[in-house]
Structure formats: C-alpha cells, structure tokens
Amino acid sequence: MSDEEDDLILSELPDEELVPQMHDDLYDGLKEEIEEGVNILLERGWEPYRILTEALVAGMTIVGRDFRDGILFVPEVLLAANAMKAGMAILKPLLAETGAPKMGKMVIGTVKGDIHDIGKNLVSMMMEGAGFEVVDLGINNPVEEYLEALEREQPDILGMSALLTTTMPYMKVVIDTMKEQGIRDDYIVLVGGAPLNEEFGQAIGADGYCRDAAVAVDMAKEFIQRRHNQRAVG
Hints:
Elements: H1 3-6, H2 15-27, H3 31-43, H4 48-68, H5 74-98, E1 105-110, H6 118-129, E2 133-136, H7 143-153, E3 157-161, H8 170-180, E4 188-192, H9 198-203, E5 208-210, H10 213-233
Helix pairs in contact: 2-3, 2-4, 3-5, 4-5, 5-6, 6-10
C-alpha cells in the first residue's frame, strides 16, 4: 500500500470515486472506512436504499463472486461481511423509516446436535449483504425452535445448516414436522453444510441444496423471484 493511498480522504472524493473506493474497502474488510463512507453519502443526500444497493450490496457481490471462484477465502469474506454489517447498522433504522423494498426474509440456524456456525454465519452475512432480512437462531436448534421462529417471524425462507454426518438427518425431522403441520409449502427450505449434497437435499424434501454462501444467495433470489411471479400469475 502506498503512502498516497494511506492519505486518502474519503470525504474529498466525488461520488463516482467514493463508491468504487467503498467497494475496495469492503473487499479489504475495512469496517471504519465503510462506516465513514456510508455517513458521507448520507450527508450528501443519498437515499439509504441507494447506498445499500450501490455501495454495499454491489461491493459484497464482488466479494461473493471471488469467494465462489476461490480467489477469496472464508476469513476474508467474514471480514468483508463484518464491514458490511457495520454499514448496515447505520442504514437499518433509516431503511425502516423510508420503507425500502426488501428482498425477503430468512430464518437460519444450525440443527440440533451441531455447534458449527462459520458456514451459517457466512450465509447470514452474505444474505444481509444481498438485501435480505436475516434472523439467525444460532446453533443446536431442535425442531421446536425452528417452528417457533417460523411462526414468530413469518419468513420467506428457512435455512438449515449441518456440518456433521450425524446431524444431517435432523434436517429431515424438521421438514417432516413441517409437512405434518401442513406448513411445508409456506416456506422455501434451503439446506447447506460440508457433508451434504444435491441428492441428500432432494431426498429430505428441501427446495435447494447450497454448496456455499454465494450459491445460497443466488438460489434465494431465484426462489423469491419465482414466488413473486407465481403470485402475480395466480
């Protein structure tokens, strides 16, 4: 990094340079710079939703793509997502006031018996980065926790994660219980985790298996879009 870059003063950059600079800062996981950039754009009269989409989501899309292509790895993505979260924290109350369109809502959690959460956290952050509202239930969730959260939050999507071959079957317990209660079709169910694969996802009745966080975001968008289209036709 050159001295010139160190001396970069964000507030002196015009919008058309500040936004790409924020993409770079997000990529590098620079939390304070992202907070500063968001505040500068707000002061300049940018709509919160425009900052979210053009500065933050667009930046996270680059991060997601490079993660998918193996250029970035989990630690870097977590840093970027953390910086994104800091920017989101400033925008969230403003977005609520302005009634900005939301992509959708997701409840996500690791299943009972499983205490792994890096993959799940990554999906949560990337989903937030794509404009979804995410309710994270944490780890070791029994079926009751999922059902209560679905009832309480009324999300579009339920995401379940497992990292152990021994906890994978619990995903089927949750889906089967949803079927018994007649609520399975009310939600898009996405599953993920290292030991899973496409066949397993289909066998337990999930809507989709997400190989990684970038795939989860793409798939979530696709399913939400499909739902909107069906409703429009219906």
